[in-house]
Design goal:
14 helices, alpha/beta, 10-stranded mixed beta sheet, globular
Length: 569
Amino acid sequence: MSKPVASGEFWDVVAITAADEKQELAYKQQLSEKLKKKELPLGVQYHVFPDPAGTKIGNGGSTLCSLQCLEDLYGDQWDSLKVLLIHSGGYSQRLPNASALGKIFTALPLGEPIYQMLELKLAMYVDFPSNMRPGVLVTCADDIELYSVGDCECIAFDQPGFTALAHPSSLAVGTTHGVFVLHSDGSLQHGDLEYRQCHRFLHKPTIENMHHFNAVHRQGSFGQQDLPGGDSSSLPLHAEYVYTDSLFYMDHKSAKKLLDFYKSEGPLNCEIDAYGDFLQALGPGATAEYTRITSHVTKEDSQLLDMRQKIFHLLKGTPLNVVVLNNSRFYHIGTMQEYLLHFTSESTLKLELGLKSVAFSVSPSVPEGFSEAACVIHSILDSGCRVAPGSVVEYSRLGPEVSIGENCIISSSVIAKTVVPAYSFLCSLSVKINGHLEYSTMLFGMQDNLKNSVKTLEDIKALQFFGVCFLSCLDIWNLKATEKLFSGNKMNLSLWTARIFPVCSSLSESVTASLGMLSAVRSHSPFSLSNFKLLSIQEMLVYKDVQEMLAYREQIFLELSSKLNILCP
């Protein structure tokens, strides 16, 4: 991917959003390393745009801020640019092995050296810029769109207003996505690729509303031909389906309209959803009713309702063009369960992308279960260690007497002889505290909810660590339930903010200490943490040493290159 790209054939700008300046720095360091190693196309401007400090503004707010950054950087020139905008802000509490270095830099079991989500995004969208007018294509860091169209067909983003991709999906999937209500075209023929107009857009609708607004299609019914493929191909004959969203494009005129609005409004004080708040305002059938529905927002306030009304009136009447991809699939890899499903089971994504069970690693033969296998990425495993089916190991070194149970995620760790119980999540970070390099390892159960929070110390008994009452765990660890036990907002007490993870002078010691915590909980035997310096996951991310973590990965890379006889760049 290291060749220079010709003008007009590729993106002029690739912009990645970040939650804050700390994350911005981490992303810039990784982009710099990739460019140095010639792992990304040259001749493209890569930028990272952080959200402003203060109130969470959502991916819609990040989009508005990014438009401002583009104008600041390029002035009048930005109206001629083709921009890929990738939303990767947030700290990935549902997939914490992506928390430190970012979702867009999630490793995939593919390639030598390993591809990350950024490279996959650039490869998937490689044909878009040459069939696109100047404007902004908006996508998220943790989703994958795969599709097939005819040899002479291509996806074009050349219409005024907004243009979105649409994928056939079950009604159940539609309840968690955006759903398009399409104008009827009267055609009985449905090819792989169709250009349609959207009457209105529904954001995470109920099944009842999908029917009410005529968003539901029926496969194999009279007057409607069967779809050629895609998710609907796995639906039974006569099954109902809807068209759901993924990425969208806005032409420069629409982007400029949003930017001018942002300038007039000043700093944002509420969360805006790029899908729920922008797309629901589009199409001739759009009504302001959605602006009062707050079931899908994390924080409801009068400012949000006011902002939604303004955006609706700003965008009302703007067309929403839909590129219907009847032979396509949309995948999300934003949670631990999705990550394990797609990397270890015989999922369609694994088959379509050619994901490997052992990718750029030295590993004993990976055991396979009836329907799943282990997955090893950019790691060195001793021939005497065992990784059970359904588990993923990335950026790690495992010794000869290590046994990893099923359905585990092991990330960036060095493990000597030990047994890691099934359904464990283990991820080590390099941290720099007062100028000293140290290590800490987060560990919890795959079923634990890191986002679940309580407001008072009396309520922390509602929290669970590996299915065990958190108060009981504190007794085992000789820790007191005081405000000092938690970092950050004292009205938001959770496993994410609990200072329970030991800080050690070496990577392997930090893993051993955290596994000792778990072993004590499982055996109900004391394991005092009172003599350790302790961090919460939230604090680990504040103190993380990105350069050291990248150096650790590079060390494994050089060793693997030597063992696998791969030419280093």
